[in-house]
Amino acid sequence: MEYQRTLAGKVILEGEGIFSGKNIKVEIEPAEENTGINFIRADLPKKPVIPLNIENVIGLEGAVALTDGEHFIYLIEHLLSAFHGLQIDNAIVKVYGEEIPLFDGSAYPWVRKIQEVGYKFSLVPKKKFYLRKSFQYQNGSGKIIFKPSNTLKIKASIFFEHVLIGHQSLEIEINPRSYINEISFARTFGFKDILFERKNKGIIKGGSLSNAIILDRDKILNPEGLRIQDEFIRHKILDIIGDLFTLGHSLVAEIEAVYSNHRLHVEALKSLYKAGLLEEVESRALAFLLIYKKLKKAE
Ligand SMILES: [Zn+2]
């Protein structure tokens, strides 16, 4: 049986927000079982709490935002990716600003800090979402397919008309070990021209080569280069793992994402949720369910 997991201590990280250009502190605290992930806008006088669930999430082109309709926290996706990848069920996230700092553009700074403080288990079984049947969501050239499975498997494909990216595809079964070793360190990426344009328009006030891989027409501007040759597709999978966690629990399914982005992921998950295709299962009930399904198949 798998038990619910929180952190054994407090994690504090501080960094520049790329939208605001301000220094923003984030504190993650352990939480009681069955409380899920709760974000708090700790910088506001009333300290509003925004629980993580699919109804409180908005998928934007390049980021995911959490909102209660009045207050916002932008760029939650890499932190959610770390929570999902490390199988954290319950935590309180105090954010002293309107966005989560990007740090190096990967989930690794979160992963390292969470591993440093360690985990605390409760004797309450973990909750997960399983699929009742296959589901496909398409928007323009982007598409995502969800199929029932007993493990979380993600296959993603990207295409960018750039000599260093082109077409990349990768399939991986996600568990804490594969997440840490294969995915967590992959950084987000952006193109210099678009970045300059956004800076000039004032959409982003911070951001530098230390927050992302930045590409020119034919080269990488970061002096250290790539961390791994296919870092781009690995970051896409990192994003998908984070976006799936907007459901509030792990989604166990086989997922194929083609040319997808945050907006598509969140729209697809909202449709999946509304269509009633998600089955919330406690890990205790899961063993029986799997045996039952096997017997049914054998009939
Ligand atoms: Zn990302």
UniProtKB/TrEMBL annotation:
Q: Which organism is it from?
A: Thermodesulfobacterium geofontis
PANTHER family in alphabetical order = UDP-3-O-ACYL-N-ACETYLGLUCOSAMINE DEACETYLASE 1, MITOCHONDRIAL-RELATED (PTHR33694)
Q: What is this protein called?
A: UDP-3-O-acyl-N-acetylglucosamine deacetylase
Cellular component terms (Gene Ontology):
membrane
Active-site positions on this chain: 262
Enzyme Commission number(s) from the entry:
3.5.1.108
**Catalysed reaction per UniProt?**
a UDP-3-O-[(3R)-3-hydroxyacyl]-N-acetyl-alpha-D-glucosamine + H2O = a UDP-3-O-[(3R)-3-hydroxyacyl]-alpha-D-glucosamine + acetate
Binding locations of Zn(2+): 78, 235, 239
Cross-referenced Pfam families: LpxC (PF03331)
Its function, per the record, reads: Catalyzes the hydrolysis of UDP-3-O-myristoyl-N-acetylglucosamine to form UDP-3-O-myristoylglucosamine and acetate, the committed step in lipid A biosynthesis.
Cofactor dependency: Zn(2+)
Q: What pathway does the UniProt record associate with this protein?
A: Glycolipid biosynthesis; lipid IV(A) biosynthesis; lipid IV(A) from (3R)-3-hydroxytetradecanoyl-[acyl-carrier-protein] and UDP-N-acetyl-alpha-D-glucosamine: step 2/6
Is Protein biosynthesis included in the keywords of this UniProt record? no
